[in-house]
C-alpha cells in the first residue's frame, strides 16, 4: 500500500468536480483509482458505475493493471470501476442513439485502413499537404468531412473521426440521453485531460451537466496540439465546472531515487541545474547508419541484460524514436543486427494500415475460393492495400499501382472472355501463379500453421507485390493464443472443413482488437514513436534519434530528429514537452542517444 501525500489525500476528501494536476509520475492515476474505489464504497447506488475514460488502449491496460496492484481495493470495488477508451465509449452511445443524428439503425465502424481506402480517390486529387495553399487545404478538409458524413448517413459506415462530433451533437441535443448516461455513470474520471480536443471537450461539457467529473492533467505533457489539444483547455474546465483544484506538483513516485523527473523539468526550462542526473545517461554516436545502429544495439543489449539480471518479472525496455520511419528502421535493425549479434526479440508499434490490409489478403487466400471471380477479388484486395496503406496520406505511386493493377485485370478478363490465354506480359501473371499455389495448399485446420503456410507461399513467390504483403503481415500479432481471430478461424474450420469466412472473421477481429481493453501492458523490448509513449511507464527507456547527412561538411539533410532538422527555433515548446514525456516514462533509467557532431539542441543550455 502506498502512503498518500497530503495533496493526494485532498483528492480523496474533496467533493464535486475536481481538477487534479501534477507532473509525470506524481500519482494522478493512482489517486484517481483510490478515489473511484472510495466513491464505489460510499456514493453509488446499485447498478451505477464509475467511468474512467482514457485516450488509448495502452493507457487503459496500465490503469487496469494499477487497479489490480492496489491491494486495498476489494474485488467488489474494482467491479464498479469501468475503464474504457473514448472511442469505445462513444461507439456505445452512437450505436444506441445514433439515429438521433440521422444515422441508420445498422452501423459498422469504418476502420482507419478502410477509411483511407474510401477517401483515397478524393485525396489523390490534391498535391502533397505541404504544397497546398490554405484555401486548397480547407477545401480538401471540407470535402473529406462531407464524404465521411455521407458514408455514415447513407451506408452506415462510421469512421472514428466522426465519433466525438456526433456524440457531442447527441448529448447536447437530448437531455434524456444525458440523464441516462449520468444515471449510469454519476462519476467520470478523465485521464490525460490536457490533450482533450475541441470535439471531445464538447462531449465533456455535456457529461458534466449530470455527472461529477474528475479531470487528471499535466499541462506540460500536452503533446497533441496538432490534432486539437489546446493550452486553454484546463481554463475551459475551470470556467465551466468550478472544480476543486489539487496540485500534486513535482512529486515523483515513478522514478524515485533518480533524478529523471528533475531532468525532465530542466528540459522544459532549457536550463540544466546539474551536470549529471542520477538515472539519466548519454551516449553519442557517429553520424552514419552503421555506427548509429551499432551504438543503439549495444545499448539495447546492455539494458536487456541489466533487466534480466535484475530478475524482475515482466520487465520492459522501450526504445523511443521521433518518427514512424525510425520505428521501422530500428525494428528492422533489431530483427537483423549487424555482425554476429543474434536477432533481438521485440515488438514495434508501427502504423497498422498496411499490415491490416495485408492480413486481409492472407485471410482471403486462406479461404481457397475457387469460384469464378475469386482472382478478381484477390486483385481488388491488392488494390485496396495500395489505396489504404498510406493511411491519411496516400502515396501517389501507390494509387498509380492500384490503377495499373485494375487496368491489367480488365485486359486479363477481356482475354479470358475472348477465349484467349492471358496477355503474356501482364503484371498479374505472377499474382495468378501465387493464387493458384495458395488454392492448391493442403491446409490442416490449425490456423497458425495454415496462416504461415499461406504467408510462406507469398514470400517464396515471384510476385514482388505479394512478397511485400507477406513482409507487412508479419507485423500483425493476431494469431497469438486465445485471440479472437484464432478462435474464429478454428470455429470456421470446425463448421465447414475450410476457412470459408476467413476474410470476414479477420475484419471483425481487427475491430474487436481496437476496442479490446484486456491487454497487458507491453513487456520486453518495445520500439515506438515518442508520441505513443504518453501515459505509459517502462523500467528503462532509450531515446534514439536520427543524424545529419553532410556533403562537404555542410548539413544537407537532417531527418528524424527530436526537434525538426535539429534547428533552434523559438521556444520549441511542443518538442520540449514531447521530449520530457519520453524521458519521464522510465522508472529506473533513461539513456539518450544523439549524434556526436550535431547533439540534440534540447540538450544544450539555452543562451540566457
Ligand atoms: N503516494 C505514493 N507513494 C508511492 N508511490 C506512488 C504514490 N502515488 C503513486 N505512486 C506510484 O508511482 C507511479 C506513478 O504514478 P501514476 O502512474 O499514478 O502517476 P501519473 O501522475 O498518473 O503519471 P503520468 O502523468 O506520467 O502518466 C506508479 O507506479 C504508482 O504506483
UniProtKB/TrEMBL annotation:
Pfam families recorded: UvrD-helicase
BP terms from Gene Ontology: recombinational repair
InterPro entries recorded: DNA_helicase_UvrD/REP, P-loop_NTPase, UvrD-like_ATP-bd
Domain (UvrD-like helicase ATP-binding) ranges: 1-256
Residues the entry annotates as binding ATP: 22-29
Keyword Ion transport: no
A single GO molecular function term of this UniProt record: hydrolase activity
Keywords: ATP-binding, Helicase, Hydrolase, Nucleotide-binding
Taxonomic superkingdom: Bacteria
Keyword Ribonucleoprotein: no
The protein, known as: DNA 3'-5' helicase II
Amino acid at each position: 500500500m502506498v502512503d498518500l501525500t497530503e495533496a493526494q489525500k485532498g483528492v480523496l476528501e474533496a467533493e464535486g468536480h475536481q481538477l487534479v494536476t501534477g507532473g509525470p509520475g506524481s500519482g494522478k492515476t493512482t489517486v484517481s483509482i483510490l478515489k473511484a474505489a472510495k466513491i464505489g464504497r460510499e456514493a453509488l447506488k446499485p447498478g451505477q458505475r464509475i467511468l474512467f475514460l482514457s485516450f488509448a488502449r495502452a493507457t487503459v491496460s496500465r490503469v487496469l493493471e494499477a487497479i489490480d496492484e492496489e491491494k486495498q481495493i476489494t474485488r467488489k470495488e474494482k467491479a464498479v470501476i469501468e475503464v474504457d477508451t473514448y472511442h469505445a465509449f462513444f461507439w456505445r452511445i452512437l450505436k444506441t442513439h445514433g439515429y438521433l443524428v440521422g444515422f441508420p439503425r445498422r452501423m459498422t465502424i469504418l476502420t482507419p485502413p478502410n477509411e483511407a481506402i474510401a477517401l483515397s480517390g478524393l485525396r489523390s486529387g490534391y498535391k502533397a499537404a505541404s504544397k497546398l495553399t490554405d484555401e486548397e487545404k480547407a477545401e480538401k478538409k471540407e470535402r473529406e468531412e462531407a464524404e465521411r458524413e455521407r458514408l455514415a448517413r447513407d451506408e452506415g459506415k462510421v469512421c472514428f473521426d466522426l465519433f466525438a462530433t456526433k456524440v457531442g451533437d447527441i448529448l447536447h441535443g437530448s437531455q434524456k440521453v444525458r440523464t441516462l448516461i449520468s444515471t449510469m455513470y454519476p462519476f467520470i474520471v478523465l485521464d490525460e485531460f490536457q490533450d482533450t480536443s475541441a470535439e471531445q471537450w464538447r462531449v465533456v461539457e455535456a457529461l458534466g451537466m449530470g455527472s461529477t467529473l474528475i479531470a487528471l492533467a499535466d499541462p506540460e505533457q500536452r503533446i497533441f496540439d496538432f490534432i486539437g489539444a489546446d493550452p486553454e483547455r484546463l481554463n475551459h474546465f475551470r470556467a465551466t465546472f468550478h472544480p476543486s483544484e489539487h496540485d500534486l506538483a513535482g512529486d515523483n513516485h515513478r522514478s524515485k531515487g533518480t533524478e529523471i523527473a528533475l531532468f525532465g523539468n530542466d528540459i522544459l526550462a532549457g536550463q540544466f541545474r546539474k551536470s549529471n542526473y542520477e538515472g539519466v545517461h548519454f551516449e553519442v554516436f557517429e553520424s552514419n547508419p552503421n555506427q548509429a545502429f551499432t551504438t543503439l544495439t549495444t545499448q539495447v543489449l546492455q539494458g536487456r541484460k541489466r533487466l534480466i539480471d535484475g530478475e524482475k518479472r515482466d520487465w520492459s525496455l522501450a526504445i523511443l524514436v521521433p518518427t514512424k520511419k525510425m520505428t521501422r528502421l530500428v525494428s528492422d535493425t533489431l530483427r537483423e543486427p549487424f555482425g554476429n549479434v543474434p536477432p533481438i526479440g521485440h515488438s514495434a508499434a508501427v502504423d497498422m494500415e498496411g499490415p491490416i490490409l495485408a492480413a486481409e489478403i492472407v485471410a482471403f487466400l486462406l479461404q481457397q475460393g475457387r469460384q469464378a471471380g475469386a482472382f478478381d477479388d484477390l486483385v481488388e484486395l491488392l488494390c485496396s492495400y495500395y489505396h489504404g496503406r498510406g493511411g491519411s496520406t496516400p502515396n501517389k505511386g501507390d494509387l498509380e499501382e492500384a490503377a495499373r493493377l485494375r487496368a491489367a485485370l480488365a485486359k486479363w478478363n477481356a482475354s479470358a472472355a475472348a477465349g484467349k490465354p492471358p496477355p503474356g506480359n501482364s503484371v498479374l501473371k505472377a499474382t495468378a501463379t501465387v493464387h493458384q499455389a495458395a488454392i492448391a495448399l493442403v491446409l490442416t485446420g490449425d490456423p497458425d500453421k495454415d496462416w504461415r503456410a499461406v504467408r510462406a507461399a507469398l514470400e517464396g513467390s515471384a510476385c514482388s507485390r505479394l512478397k511485400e504483403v507477406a513482409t507487412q503481415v508479419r507485423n500483425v500479432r493476431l494469431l497469438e493464443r486465445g485471440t479472437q481471430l484464432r478462435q474464429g478461424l478454428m470455429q470456421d474450420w470446425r463448421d465447414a472443413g475450410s476457412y470459408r469466412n476467413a476474410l470476414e472473421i479477420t475484419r471483425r477481429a481487427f475491430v474487436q482488437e481496437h476496442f479490446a481493453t484486456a491487454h497487458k501492458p507491453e513487456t520486453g523490448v518495445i520500439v515506438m514513436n515518442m508520441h505513443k509513449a504518453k501515459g505509459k511507464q517502462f523500467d528503462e527507456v532509450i531515446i534514439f534519434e536520427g543524424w545529419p547527412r553532410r556533403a562537404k561538411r555542410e548539413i544537407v539533410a537532417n531527418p528524424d530528429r527530436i526537434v525538426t532538422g535539429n534547428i533552434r527555433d523559438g521556444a520549441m515548446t511542443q518538442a520540449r514537452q514531447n521530449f520530457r514525456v519520453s524521458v519521464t516514462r522510465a522508472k529506473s533509467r533513461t539513456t539518450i542517444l544523439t549524434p556526436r557532431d550535431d547533439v540534440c539542441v534540447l540538450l544544450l543550455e539555452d543562451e540566457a
